Amino acid sequence: MSLPAPGNASADIGVTGMGVMGSNLARNLARNGHRVAIHNRSVERTEQVMAAHGAQARFLPTTSMEEFVACLERPRVALVMVQAGQATDDVIDDLASRMEPGDIIVDCGNSLFTDTRRREARLREQGLHFVGCGVSGGEEGALWGPSIMPGGSQESYDRLGPMFEKIAAKVDGEPCCTRIGADGAGHFVKMVHNGIEYADMQVIGEAYHLLRSALGLEPAAIADVFAQWNSGELDSYLLEITVEVLRQVDPRTGRPLVDVILDAAGQKGTGVWTTQVALDLGVPVTGIAEATFARALSSSLPQRVAAQTFAAGSRSWRVTDADTFIEDVRQALYASKLIAYSQGLGEIRAAALEYGWEIDLAALARIWRGGCIIRARFLGEIARACDTDPDLPLLLADDFFATRVAAALPSWRRVVSDAALHGVPTPVFSSSLAYYDGIRTSRLPACLIQGQRDFFGAHTYRRIDDEGTFHTRWAEPGRPEVKA
To answer: In which residues is substrate bound (predicted)?
Structure first.
């Protein structure tokens, strides 16, 4: 089909990049009463969107970037929905060259937050607003109501906010959208959201693996267990869809579909970014890191083949009380999930201090309650905890979570111990428990590490009974200590 010329018509907002996410966001905006200009580098893709959805949406199709920008109502708002990296820079540059001071460019892709900070600073010099905006919820969320995490200036949010809040998911009447903070804050929060998602998916996988290994349950039976769990405090989107995956039968073989899917997990980099940035900030996100490494290990197929003959040295598993074992796994899953969310919020808090972002963690927890992939029942409790004490240094220190994790500890320890004894890998269950034990321990062996560092590199150490830093002259008689 050929596209009609836009003429003198104007659009409230524009979307360039008509992939599935871009076209679904455009359809969501149009369904909520906005006139939406649409554009794609390939005009054929715009034609396809119009052929499929043009009759149901208030679209203004355009065939060039010049035409796209020209039909946007001032101050212009253009959403960029293209592949992260150079493609995003190219589109931003093209838009910026045609825009005027006060106009707004919004990157709704999964860009690295440092790229967003660089772009925002550059466009600010031109008088343009640049917004790095996290969007979570996948294809369905984009169409029917995602969780939206925009960064950028307050002025840009004054223009964008009403539109985004209208198309976002709603929980208890509240839109799952709020301004996160300046420059790269929105994309940073979305990055950590995805890191938490990695950990959440992995711990569900570990629970599945344990129930299969210890009890010999088939996928459909595990789906029934998970469905029951999902009706209680573990209620979450990821557990809900896991039930559907486990119940799916492969039409080719008649076997459970999960049994014919290659056990090599993919990733697009946000888990890696979350881990790398946490290391830069000095924040332990052990659950997220182990989940990221678990995906890498699963995809290390030549190495896994070479290791198939390795001795397990494990016991054969004989569970005498299946119900108790299932409850132990449930408790371990709940505690490990809490650790992932706590660690993720800790990384966000550290980044806010590092980059001068004023991020409201309670508001963030509330907008994650709907639309997004990591939505879960206990996010309401997380929001309450952060509202009660905005300076709470550790989510697990809140009375509700401290009490809940303490109740799960006996089960959690049994599960991790049994998994190790029986040769079943549980990297996130195990590392999350180690993190919990590490953070609650009053005296860690880091004192010895500091002594070692000072011995071979004169890196100094601090004392528990004096101020300042010290160095021991290890090679001298009597090993005298000097204040550094």
So the answer is: 110, 136-138, 193-194, 198, 268, 295, 453, 459
User: Side chain identity at 370, as an amino acid letter?
Assistant: G
Q: Which residues contact 68 (CB under 8 A, 6 or more apart)?
A: 14, 16, 37, 39, 62, 78
Domain count, the chain: 3
pLDDT in tens, 124-175: 999 999 999 999 999 999 999 999 999 999 999 999 999 999 999 999 999 9
- Residue 32 is assigned to a ligand binding site: no
Domain presence at residue 272: yes
Q: Is 39 assigned a ligand-binding role in the annotation? A: no
Q: How many alpha carbons lie under 13 Å from residue 291 in its C-beta half-sphere?
A: 31
- Write down the pLDDT at residue 316: 86
84 appears as a binding residue in the annotation: yes
| Residues 160, 104 contacting (CB under 8 angstroms) | yes
> How many other CB atoms are found less than 10 A from the CB of residue 26?
30
Residue 4 lies in a domain: no
Helices marked H in 126-267 — which ranges?
A: 138-144, 154-167, 185-215, 219-230, 237-247
> 325, 314, 280: which is closest to 113 by C-alpha?
280
Mean pLDDT of the chain, nearest integer: 95
Is residue 34 annotated as involved in ligand binding? no
User: Has residue 7 been placed in a domain?
Assistant: no
E strands, 69-181, are 77-80, 104-107, 129-136, 147-150, 170-171, 174-175
Active-site option among 67, 73, 174, 190? 190
Please report the DSSP string for 201-219 in residue order. Answer: HHHHHHHHHHHHHHH---H
Determine if the pTM surpasses 0.90: yes
197 flagged as catalytic: yes
| Catalytic annotation, pick one of 197, 206, 290, 347 | 197
How remote is the C-alpha of 127 from its chain's centroid?
31
Closest CA to 183 of 92, 122, 127, 126: 122
pLDDT at position 1 over 50 = no
Report the CATH number that the domain containing residue 197 is assigned in CATH: 1.10.1040.10
Q: Flag whether 198 is marked binding.
A: yes
Q: Residue 1 domain-assigned?
A: no
Which of 263, 119, 257 has the alpha carbon at shortest distance from 187?
119
Residue 190 known to be catalytic: yes
